[in-house]
Amino acid sequence: MGIGDLHLLGWLTNRDTYDVRGKTVLITGAGQGIGWELAKVLHARGASIALADIDESSARTAAESLGVATMAIGVDVTDREAMARTVTRVVERFGRLDVVVANAGVVPKPATLRVMDARDFDRVIGINLTGVFNTVHPALDHIIQAKGHVVVVSSAAAFAPGMGGSPYMISKVAVEQLGRALRIELAAVGASAGVAYFGVVETAMTHDTLDDDELGRRLGAMLPWPLNVRITGRAAAETIADGIARRAPRTIAPVGWEPYSLLRGVVNVVLDGRLARDARVHALIRAVEERIRPNLHSASDITR
Ligand SMILES: NC(=O)c1ccc[n+]([C@@H]2O[C@H](COP(=O)([O-])OP(=O)(O)OC[C@H]3O[C@@H](n4cnc5c(N)ncnc54)[C@H](O)[C@@H]3O)[C@@H](O)[C@H]2O)c1
């Protein structure tokens, strides 16, 4: 057993078991990345999978490569009526809906609150938060009928500092609260829900944000060990799948984020103070702002 197997929160939480064999699972954002890896893992464990993605062709290619007991749906999670129709289509096709994984998500363009395009704020909240609501809400009657499970994909961003990308952090902490509320509400009627948190996962999202962008690389370089440890999309998917199998209230991967998650109240008081005083962070923030509004920082703007 390696350090990666020591899932403290998983160990502390309940031991219910839930077998997805013969069940129907709806996954949003299933055309690539974590959602696609999860579709493969759950299909291999015997579930029928509805793969929903705004990129219909990627959802279709993914579903076709899985083969039987799959369906592909091209849908934008921000379209509330279309998401309700998606749930109806899944139930018509498979006769039931047992598990929903609200996974679709996007990142904003790097920006401070000062220089950000307000439309980017709305876009990220619309997909990452309202999109999760739009996914889960029409499914709940079916989930409860099946005594099933809901997973909402949050992030370690729910408790990490948000500078330079705050719409993402704001959306993910809101998703965390959505999942916590759902957990308790569903427990009253025989179903369950959990929140999935990830640190850094090797997907297109990470490559676009941290690897292919010079400022992203500078931000990534500030992450200390073990928070800079990366996991594959497959490993992230297995964490969600194993969480479903034990109706976990939360899953966190990689494991290095668990102590931070548990101690966040204390850690963040100290961390926010340090980051607000850190010259490297000041320089990075000014670089992010200058990229959007060149020459924003005249000498008079930087007072300390
Ligand atoms: N990659 C990471 O390091 C990381 C870390 C923590 C949490 N997460 C979360 O995991 C989830 C999956 O991320 P990923 O890394 O696989 O990203 P990704 O960009 O590889 O895949 C996201 C998928 O969501 C789809 N999508 C985007 N907008 C959509 C919309 N409006 N409607 C329907 N589908 C839409 C995309 O087409 C894509 O297929 C996201 O919620 C993300 O915030 C990722």
From TrEMBL:
Give the domain of life.
Bacteria
Q: Which InterPro entries match?
A: KR_dom, NAD(P)-bd_dom_sf, SDR_fam
GO MF, one annotated term: oxidoreductase activity
Gene3D superfamilies according to UniProt: NAD(P)-binding Rossmann-like Domain
Positions of the Ketoreductase domain = 23-260
Record's keyword terms, sorted: Oxidoreductase
Per the record, a Pfam family? adh_short
Instruction: Name the family the entry cites.
Output: Belongs to the short-chain dehydrogenases/reductases (SDR) family.
Database matches in NCBIfam families: PRK05872.1 (NF004526)
Q: What is this protein called?
A: SDR family NAD(P)-dependent oxidoreductase
